[in-house]
UniProtKB/TrEMBL annotation, chain A:
Regions of compositional bias (Low complexity) in chain numbering: 21-33
Region (Disordered): 18-42
Record PANTHER family: LACTATE UTILIZATION PROTEIN C
Name recorded for this polypeptide: L-lactate dehydrogenase complex protein LldG
Highest taxon above the source species: Bacteria
One Pfam family from the record: LUD_dom
Residue stretches making up the LUD domain: 51-214
TrEMBL record, chain B:
Position of the signal peptide: none
Record-linked PANTHER family: LACTATE UTILIZATION PROTEIN B
Entry protein name: L-lactate dehydrogenase complex protein LldF
Domain (Lactate utilization protein B C-terminal): residue spans on this chain: 393-485
UniProtKB/TrEMBL annotation, chain C:
Stretches assigned to the Cysteine-rich domain: 3-83, 138-222
Name listed for the protein in its UniProt record: L-lactate dehydrogenase complex protein LldE
InterPro entries found in the cross-reference section: Cys_rich_dom
GO cellular component entries: cytosol
UniProt xrefs under PANTHER family: LACTATE UTILIZATION PROTEIN A, UNCHARACTERIZED PROTEIN YKGE
GO molecular-function terms, A-Z: oxidoreductase activity
One Pfam family matching this protein: CCG
Organism expressing this protein natively: Actinacidiphila paucisporea
Amino acid sequence: MTTTSRDEILRRVRQALGDQPGTTPDPTTIPRTYQTTHATRTPEQRTHLLADNLTDYRAHVHHTDTTALPTTIARLLTDHGTRSAVIPPGVPTDWLSATTGIHIHHDHGELTAHQLDTIDTVITGCALAIAETGTIVLDTSPDQGRRILTLVPDHHICIINTPTQVVDSLPQALPHLDPTHPLTWISGPSATSDIELDRVEGVHGPRTLDVILIHDNRD
Amino acid sequence: MSRTHLGLPTFPQAARLSTRDEQLRANLRHATSTIRTKRATATSELSDWPQLRAAGAAIKDHTLHHLDHYLEQLETAVTTAGGTVHWAIDADDANRIITDLIHATGESEVVKVKSMATQETGLNEALTQAGITAYETDLAELIVQLDNDRPSHILVPAIHKNRTQIRDIFHTRMGAWGRPAPDDLTDTPADLAEAARLHLREKFLRTKVAISGANFMIAETGTMVVLESEGNGRMCLTLPDTLITLVGIEKTIPTWRDLEVFLQTLPRSSTAERMNPYTTTWTGTTLGDGPQTFHLVLLDNGRTDTLADTTGRQALRCIRCSACLNVCPVYERAGGHAYGTPYPGPIGAILTPQLHGTTTPLNASLPYASTLCGACYDVCPVAINIPEVLVHLRERITQGGPTTTNGTKTTIKPAKRHTTERTTMRTAAWTLNHPAAWTATQRLTTRTRALHPRRLPGKTARAWTATRDLPPVPARTFRDWWQHRDADAKDTPQ
Amino acid sequence: MRVALFVTCVNDVLYPDTGRAVVTLLERLGVDVDFPTGQSCCGQPQYNTGYRHQTEPLVHRYATVFTDYDYIVTPSGSCAAMVRDNYPKIAQRATAEGRESGLSRAAAAAVPKTYELTEFLVDVLGVTDVGAYFPHTVTYHPSCHGLRTLGLGDRPHRLLQAVRGITLRELPAADECCGFGGTFAIKNPDVSTAMGHDKITHALTTGADILCGADNSCLMHLHGLITRQHTPLHTVHLAEILASTKEHPYTPATKAGNLR
């Protein structure tokens, strides 16, 4: 039956396009006169813009370097009142070297949604971040893990290496991303505009988003 | 094609009541004015907005002009990536396919991400009849479902409710569907969002089947794209074992790169954000991550008929941002329910009559539900010339002409309801093209001006004079003055 | 420079003072303006209601009547927009249907020389101070077709700002439609009235005595609501303000004996 619908839909499409020349489509003919980035920025300016835009959408932005990263993570976990946290398999163990008194779950694909619902915090890296929109992209690489990890716990700590993981704009981000992996694009914590078309933060996704920017080339 | 609404009032009949609903007017005025200002700010951040808009329109037109090619490419890519593709010719076809897929899982409840396509097909009602309970998980859809109401906006289906009304709905109705709202629930948006979080969480954690729509389908990779804010989308797209995605065929775009346009224009046009909080993209299935079974149902339901109309097909560019609703002065006063279909506002006024024909009184009234002010065209991120299509559809109604219905080319007759108007327009056009007749008509008008009352009898005239005085008719027409101005020069200083 | 006035059918019968004001204004600025009497209507009411075929003879008439002129000036944004935006579409559609019969040439001839009044003043004549005097408090409603289809921008404001004695007040939500919309006012009277009332409410908040516009059809709708409500507000076409001088001040006298 679905074969019939398939053939009929394609027949209708072809009939409907009777006015169009039946040539092989060439998407390169689409005019793309828009900009690939909306400003020329130094790496510092780019990271600064990312931090501003993340903050604008109520993410908490923290600055540190690789050496101080474990301390920063430990402090954020304490401040949040975290009792248990989960990390994907590719997160370096030294990230948690300053953390004590918290139960750490190492996910190897076995934690269920119900189990994750009892875990306070997830700590991950990211694929890249986009300055102009204040967006972090996760691509399920080993330091980010399964999508469920960054969804069910109510607190997400995401670590971004600057300037290497920061791009200016969407047109600059897409070539770096592999669509065959499931991707999650995050711009601030969960929010809704469904009540009187005004934005409020905090619905189903993590309600607290801590972003740690690592600056190692700072003088 | 199964969702015809023979019994529904026409747009003006519905608007007669809704324009008098002061609470509704206040809610809509508040919400639309808030978002209008924010959208203007969000779009002004991008100096290349006109170029992004043109590229968005061009990508969509290109895809539509080669839709058969891209649909087949999409089907191949999705199948290769582990998904199963189904094709649905109409609403009943889609509902049957989805019902069968759910039955095959042995489950009797599903969680849903907000989807215009499932509203269009009436999926929830079909699932109820098949003994399947569908839980809406978008906050506004949840409000509408709990209240047994109808959506009134594409993006924010409960826009017609204010926070106090939402609080009352949560209080009285949540318990019947699952975890009740807390007794001390206030009407602050944060508290309302928290109540929805708690109510839905148990459903997310236990439900094995999810139903979604998609904002974009990428033909070259077979990738689905869903933009959302709350995280309910991520829950539905990640936690269940089986994911069924129903998407209109026009949501196809050719390449991964094309997202660089729409991910800039869609969030800014809809929620007026630089970027929405969450976007999920997935391609088929991924071992060990997310649903292990993925079905894509491609929906026609009048889209190919719309594609056959060379003027009207631009409506298929629509990316459902709802910017046109938010700027529309008619929508703001009449409200979304007056449009009587899942697609309200200016885009609905051109989409519904094309998808489902102009035979019902309601659908035939929709192309007239506009002053042609053009605010919708201005804000449209894919440059749909809505006023142009509205006028085109008015012509289809008044004059008839060639059209395509259920894939068959046909010629429709002029609508009977417009017989008097048609005669008037013909007479007027003839008079205006014959100077002697036009001058005579003018003379008659001015000479009988003392007889013209300020209010007139008759249905048409009453529509004007019930609230408005008629303009007084001056003693002389302009041309009369012009032809005698030299002779009059002494009398008239000008 | 051969300049013709396209007064429009509505102004011809119902608002002759607006036509006279345009003649007065242009002649004061040294323009020799003509009024070819073969003109009638641009066809907008027919076209927008769905009677495209009935519009075609009026496209021919418009092009023929104004053949001998370099400029066609009209005190109506929506009629100018009808010619410039829709005449080419009407010709294209007729061609696609195999009924071209000279419509393309007619449209091509008419479009480039059709100017809305404020465009003609600012762009062609290069003036913003037209020597007007109008000692009243005024707020300006930019009608939709002038605002969006023609893109008149700040031309009307620049002209009004240069008027002596005038007090200009900014209209809140100015870019929102007044609710007229041609047959919309008849087919959707409740929404039309609601929009008109909101427009009038906004105008009243400015404290202006005069609600000025560049399209008498919109003003006809608003004026009809205003007089029914007995609201202390008058509607005046922009041309009549620009024509007004100290020597020959604006007077609504010929509009109707029982007005104001």
